[in-house]
Amino acid sequence: MEACHLMGARKISLYGTGRNETEVIEYLCSLVEDRDEPVNFLQLYLTQRCQLACKYCGMRGSSERSDMSESMLRQAIDFLFTSDSKDIRLQFFGGEPLLRFDLVKKGVSYALKKAERLGKKCKFLLATNGLSLNKASLDFFRSNNFSLVFSLDGKEKVQAINRPPLKRAFAERYFKQISTNLERLAASGVSFFVNCVVGPGMVSYMPETVDFLINRKVRNIRFSYMMGVFWEMPEIRRLQEEVREQFVRCKNDHPEIEITACDDEPVLLCSGIAAAHNGDLFVGSTLPLKQRFTHLPRINYYGNLNRLKTINLLKRNKKAEVEKALGAALCHKNEFRLLANNIYMGILHERLFNRLLKNHDKS
Hints:
Elements lengths: L2 H11 L7 H11 L4 E2 L3 E5 L24 H11 L6 E7 L7 H18 L2 E8 L6 H9 L3 E5 L4 H7 L8 H18 L2 E8 L7 H9 L5 E6 L7 H21 L4 E3 L12 E3 L4 E4 L12 H4 L1 E4 L11 E2 H11 L4 H30 L1
Parallel strand pairs: 2-3, 2-9, 3-4, 4-5, 5-6, 6-7, 7-8
Antiparallel strand pairs: 1-12, 9-10, 10-11
Helix pairs in contact: 1-12, 2-11, 2-12, 3-4, 9-12, 11-12
């Protein structure tokens, strides 16, 4: 890492010991590309229910009353298709969206008819914990050219750290079901990657996680840094070094395997727009992090679908979003410190992969 980055990390790590908040904001904004984001991507939070109780997810513990209605589903899709873009992306999210597979199917049918009528293309994505995958859903995803995000932190002992089942009685058999369904997905022909969330203190598990996934024919692995926790500089270094090591290892020994990263950092302020079950619209990653960043929903709230006419009004600039989010958190000292730290993690993660890909292309 460059010296200026280390200096910036120390500045954020030592925030609260006399450092100037304005300096932190200016420094982070200087590292973010000044670019406008397309407004063609909508995440639909079909339900807040889930079979797991992931410690880093703000959606856990919700009831059936938090499911999206069919009318709200159609309204959200109509809103997405007001985009000036000809290429539309629609992601089904949760909770666990496959608990409302009926809504997924209805949403796809409605979006495809809308796309044909308007002369647009619609790409479908879905994030899942894998527990409810079956032949019917895999056939549907293959027929409709879905891309899946399979959320799995690693082998059983690693998964148990932050992704335990909601019901303890399910604990003994739930991982076997996840592992079996992952193998089915790998053999199905459906495009997917496994998203592994790595938190402080978990970096040492990454090599065995890669081995575990390779043995199950996974071809695309993404290591995501945990958000909503503070990353100290030694742990940032360990994560970056291990990501680099696994990237090089796979390129050399397993060229069929890709170690990838999010292409929209910092993820905390990603360009996707999230539609909650009630039609409230937020910056992409706000809802899963609402328990860690209690003021983020207010900062990142766009409005409700009932009051917004076109998605084009939500055009965003990445640098401006960073400045806005940090500026709004200034009066909440601990949250500002955590927000700045996680934004910085995203910047470092993106730069690491840019260097890795550049070096690989040269070799």
